[in-house]
Hints:
The complex is a heterotrimer.
Chain A: H1 2-37, H2 69-104, H3 107-122, H4 125-135, H5 141-168, H6 171-178, H7 183-219, H8 231-239, H9 247-281
Chain B: H1 2-28, H2 34-39, H3 45-55, H4 61-73, H5 87-122, H6 127-139, H7 144-158, H8 175-209, H9 212-219, H10 224-261, H11 267-277, H12 280-308, H13 310-317
Helix pairs in contact in B: 1-12, 5-6, 5-8, 5-10, 5-12, 6-8, 7-8, 7-10, 8-10, 9-10, 10-12, 11-12, 12-13
Chain C: E1 5-13, E2 18-27, E3 32-36, H1 43-51, E4 59-66, E5 69-70, H2 76-82, E6 87-90, H3 94-97, H4 104-118, H5 125-138, H6 144-149, H7 157-170, E7 175-179, H8 187-204, E8 207-212, H9 215-221, E9 224-229, E10 232-238, H10 239-244, H11 249-266
Parallel strand pairs in C: 3-8, 3-9, 6-7, 7-8
Antiparallel strand pairs in C: 1-2, 1-4, 4-5, 9-10
Helix pairs in contact in C: 4-5, 4-7, 5-7, 7-8
Amino acid sequence: xxxxxxxxxxxSRGGATYLLGLILVGVIVAAGLISFAWTPYALSDMAGxxxxxxxxxxxxxxxxxxxxxxxxxxxxxxxxxxVGCGAVAIGGAIGMVTGILAAFATRFADDALAAVxxxxxxxxxxxxxxxxxxxxxEASLGTAILALGIGLSPIVGRITRILTKQVLGQDYxxxxxxxxxxxxxxxxxxxxxxIVPFLGVNLALQFGLAVMAEASLxxxxxxxxxxxxxxxxxxxxxxxxxxxxxxxAVFPGLALFALVIGINLxxxxxxxxxxxxxxxxx
Amino acid sequence: MLxxxxxxxxxxxxxxxAAAIVLFVLLRLLPGDPANALVGVGAxxxxxxxxxxxxxxxxxxxxxxxxxxxxxARFDLGQSFVSxxxxxxxxxxxxxxxxxxTFAAFFLAMLLAIPLGIVAAVKARRWYGLVLSVVSQVGIAxxxxxxxxxLVYQFSLTLRWxxxxxxxxxxxxxxxxxxxxxxLPVLTIALIMTASLMRYVRSATLxxxxxxxxxxxxxxxxxxxxxxxxxxxxxxxxxVVSVLGIELSTTFLGAVVVEQVFSLPGLGSMLLLGIQQRDxxxxxxxxxxxxxxxxxxxxxxxxxxxVLDPRLRKEGGR
Amino acid sequence: xxxxxxxxxxxxxxxxTRLVEDLSFSIAPGERFGLIGESGSGKSLTALAVTGLxxxxxxxxxxxxxxxxxxxxxxxxxxxxxxxxxVATVFQEPLTALDPLMPLGAQIAGPVRRRLKRSGxxxxxxxxxxxxxALLEQVRLPEPERLVGAYPxxxxxxxxxxxxxxxxxxxxxxxxxxxxxxTALDVTTQAEIVQLINxxxxxLGLGLLFISHDLPVVGQxxxxxxxxxxxxxxxRGSTARVLTEPEDAYTHDLVDAARRFDSALEGRx
Lengths: 282, 318, 269
């Protein structure tokens, strides 16, 4: 009774932040999608004079070569989303498979895999990514995605392992096992439906980390090469002219910030919902 | 406790070996023969052969690996391809920038985050408690290099209080300028870390405020503040300490990026330069030393947590 | 009236729900009073309201007089002085009610030292330690020397609850509130703890507010009982009368259920 009373006002606030997250992510997704069909100018079109401030012709101003910054921001949204989705897909796939395998494995193999996850997590994602990027002849978008995906996979693996072990401890798994259900069917019908919601919250957070790490890589000059307009690279280019043209540094950072906070808010909202349904059940 | 420490030490050593293997494999996956980088374009096959012999890259992978582990055990990280200087010397010179930067930022962050996080939890219903928790939420989404650029814009270019980057050539022999050039980088990292630490401190404090034992203490006549001091802080410290290791590692990583913003000659810029110049010994050296530091910090955080929490000590002893 | 506790027209409500409605009862010095009800009936909230420790979302109205002082609407400062002195509480779950990171001796020493300081007595290390040892003996804990240095997770549930009782007694309160003190324990330990509380309260002449969902347990301890359901008092009277000839239908059900349970245990039809 008291719990319901206390949850009342909180629920509405949780809804508001969830909505805010949805709007922020929605705007950036829309910008990224529209960029496939339309941008104000062509990406490498030197449409204005150098370092123009924001104006009706150039909504976010121009860079030092006179290229339209709003166009670059839109393409940047596309790249951020592609990198985030790609890295989470790769990291999620590797992590989930190894995590579930670890949970099902013999005691020894499980301990060994768990230790490997822990060691790999100690390697910061960004360093792994830098190494993989360095390992390729030249930086490309694909390399960055692969690198970040590999970097994220041990984190996903560890969480998948823990979640799977929790589900495996439940009585209904034993019941399914006793009634002769195969392991494959147990994974598909019992494990996945139970862990995917919680994993989803974590993957959303990993998405934010991947976007941030890609921006860092691009900022360091290890990301997608020039025809791509990553927000990180825009920031790198704008840094040298930040005194005369601060907007060049403000907008890409703001876009990056908005996407990451939006994703975090969405993840929080999702977790609150899961938490509440969990509590209601218990 | 002693049993746990030995076991934890063994795990630390194993992790180091595992890390060394991972690095070895990853670096051998690098395209091209390092010998080419060593002798440069237009070398004769004889020269390349000689370079290979010098590097040992004509040997089998297993022989290379054993030699590599042996070198590591003697802290011999090899010589830079480019400058021919021992890698370990270059690293220790660079660490004299990166370590002070990391630790100063980390301690400043703790100094800010612990009181602010506690206030945000205790005064969660006041407007400033709410503002603090929103700021910490928002702060973790701010890209560290963006904040760096904005701080440079404000404090170096507009107000002209501090240098926008660089480090005195003579290093700490010029202490005034060395400190000046560290202020903005430290502030940049510290502000981001404060936001993320504050969230942990706040939620740990909220958990404690909600705890039964705090209610017991108050029910027996302890004041709210008194109960928080006597029982709350130590209990709240346990979960915070468990993330301090990760946070310190993140600070270190932030330093790698922030060094680039402020053109500081630290470990991060050494790594970047090494990658650009394909200077494998330097890249490998930086990665090994960074991993060693990260693992060591994790080790210390685990020990500290057990000192604080008797329940963990018991589990560790089983 | 010189009652230890007088509750008059107490209502507890959140912004949209009434949790306890128009509750009145009083406890005289040395009297043992039982509060019975299922979980969610509002009995534990009533106990929290008496000590002024309600969660901020729940608002009390009506009157609670504790040793002559009004609790409802009193500033925290006044309540701090009242807690421990006028009333001390033993909570349901001794594992979480004790600080997991503090040795048991130090946890008992806390309220001892506070009381000695408040009354201006000798609060030196030695004096506090002597009292802690005396309290451990008073709650019949074996090996007090070892327990003083032990952590809560290192002793049994029953021993933890005895420590919690020692902490409450360390305050030398006039009224002891025992809020479901046996629910988290196994049956044998339950009986021991009930006996201990009973004996100590009689020995020290304390007033007792004993809260439980377990009718027979309350029957062993209390002289008068009140039955609560959905935030309201449905029946009150002497324990013997309520347990033998309940007037309210709900109480009747409770008594029947307890009786059936007992006979099932004893193997009678």
